[in-house]
Amino acid sequence: MNGKFTLRILLGALFIILCSSFNAVAADDYRKRISQAGDMFSEEEDIKAEVVFGRVLAARILGRFPYYEDDRLNEYINKLGKGLAQFANRPEIEFRFAVLDSSAINAFAAPGGYIFITRGALLKMGDEAELAAVLAHEIAHVTERHIVKELNIKGTDTSPVSGFAMVLGGGSGAVRAVFAQMVDKAAEILFEKGLKQQDEFDSDRVATIIIATAGYDPTALRRYLKKISGAETETKSLTDTHPSFFDRIKSADQVLADNQLAGVKQAIVKERFKDNVKIN
Question: Alpha-carbon distance 124 to 104, whole Å?
Answer without folding.
Answer: 11
